[in-house]
Amino acid sequence: MGTKHVLIVEDEEDIRELVRFNLAREGYTTSTAGSGEEGLRLARTKQPDLVLLDLMLPGIDGLEVCRRLKKESATENIPIVMLTAKGEESDIVAGLELGADDYVTKPFSPKVLIARVRAVVRRRARPTTEQGGVVRIHELTIDPQRHEVLVGESRADLTYTEFRLLQLLAARPGLVFTRYQIVNAVRGEDYPVTDRSVDVQVVGLRRKLGAAGVYIETVRGVGYRFKD
């Protein structure tokens, strides 16, 4: 895959240096920025492979940085991992819905941070579906043309909504989806469904998948993801 370049946007110098040191030790090259404005400039000029973005920044905050990066064609495909304060679930949800790929809450373990960075880079580097849209992950085979899900050799009898929900999550393993993103992807923005309805669909889907239902993970206060 070659050496990956990570842009660290963090206003606290000690945290910025801690992150830079641990990434460098793992073989990543890095650039650093202490403000949202500088982060935007470096993202545009250096085109990093990933941005680690603190949400609590002076001036332009992290959510606005994320929104601008995802709006511009030159930077929209750069993956973003947010650094957030513990318990700031509303900011996490907002960032994910703006297009961020993942998040790590402070205080964090450097090992956890490196693992999240590796996972996001790995997901972006590999195709998630075969030709024809078939998804094969763990013991699951998801075939959208046949509208069929196999758990091993057994067919799971899913509703349309359950199938689309599973297809969405399994095609991007490890990526967190908020309930709002799930509703939009499964039924469209105008479908009248509540957060509670998504939770009910997940319960039913897990039950029908049997032992494979454990791959659908709940991210408390945020949404769901499929285990990588």
Give descriptors for this structure.
228 residues; alpha/beta; Rossmann fold; Arc Repressor Mutant, subunit A; 5-stranded parallel sheet; 4-stranded antiparallel sheet; 12 strands; elongated
Description:
By secondary structure, the chain is an alpha/beta fold. The chain folds into 2 domains: 5-125, Response regulator (Rossmann fold); 135-226, Arc Repressor Mutant, subunit A (Orthogonal Bundle). The longest helix has 16 residues, at 110-125. It has helices spanning 13-25, 36-46, 62-71, 89-98, 110-125, 160-171, 179-187, 195-209, and strands at residues 5-9, 29-33, 50-54, 80-85, 102-106, 135-137, 140-143, 148-151, 154-156, 177-178, 216-219, 223-226. Helices cover 42% and strands 22% of the residues. It contains 8 helices and 12 strands. Helix 3 packs parallel to helix 4 (89-98).
